[in-house]
Amino acid sequence: MLSELEIYDEVMKVIPEYDLLSDLLVDQLERLSIPLHVLEVGSGTGLLTEKLLLSPRVAELTCVDPDADACELLRRRCRRGQVAVHANHFERVKGLCKFDAVVSRFALHHVPDEAKLEFLRHARRSLKSGGLCLVGDMTLPHYEGPCDRADAVMQYYKVTSDYVRRLGNQLAIDDQAECMERDLNQDEEYKICRCRAEKLIEEAGLFLKEIFPVSTYRRGCGMVWPGIYLFVATCP
Asked: Whose CA, among 42, 75, 169, 218, lies 20 to 30 Å from 126?
């Protein structure tokens, strides 16, 4: 019987766009010419962390995640001394220095809507002037209000559910059914549309430089996961 974290890892490995997002994020860091002190927010079990540790640009890496079990798994995956791991909510971790880059993959949509702006403001406060903020996440189709949001959720999961059925992976099929139910109830998942994500990043005081629509990199393959974007912003 797989644990919840093991199921999470397996599902994340099934969807090619998830891995592509990590590669694009690391590529943005490698465009910089200096050794980087990087903060990874929502590190989970370490799927992105492993790629960050392979980058020649990442000199120091600090990881934060509220899930203590995920952090323990991350510590086991990483050699001692390579990475500092904090099992806590991002905003509650004390004593963090200023970073050259703050990165987040699939963390923002887990933050309640009313807390998203403060999450991004804290990311800005954690950055050195000129530092890079990279936020990669899944977004819903555009919506205006609560009723429209339910329609956007249904549109999103119609595509993702068809996708995983075509992949034939039962873990992913079950995962999408559970995620849809949570998103409709806004219990644990809090996906927003792309335009709202852009607005929040700018309201947080970050300068939005570029947006990469990750799914466009796989057009022509017959299956595309919707609404995955990498938002690239800098701290003034």
From this structure: 75
